[in-house]
Design brief:
With about 100 residues, this protein is mostly beta strands. The protein is built from one helix and six strands, in the order E-E-H-E-E-E-E.
């Protein structure tokens, strides 16, 4: 059975991200079933990097390092964007997409 790990806290917001429909950024993206009623939004500044970090809840499969799935959704408006997602463990990179 899949163990789902969800966001539990916002660590940093260096790029002007704003939660829409939720009090915090992590609560804007913590749905069991994806919903468009709450989300995180950033206004793009030309050439600027907008970064947001969140903490994930504890997992129960300690020591298992394969077979994990990470899901995210995003939508862009009139400008092209580059989305980078990094998974860190104790501040060390595990994966990047």
């Amino acid at each position: 059975m899949a163990h789902i790990i969800r966001p539990i806290a916002t660590i940093s917001n260096d790029g002007g991200w704003t939660p829409i429909g939720a009090p915090t950024l992590w609560e804007a993206v913590d749905e069991v079933i994806p919903a468009d009623g709450d989300f995180a939004r950033v206004i793009e500044a030309t050439g600027a990097v907008q970064q947001w970090s969140m903490s994930l809840g504890p997992g129960t499969e300690h020591g298992i390092h394969t077979g994990h799935i990470i899901r995210w959704r995003f939508r862009r408006h009139a400008v092209a964007i580059r989305l980078n997602v990094r998974l860190l463990e104790r501040c060390l990179p595990c994966r990047s997409w």
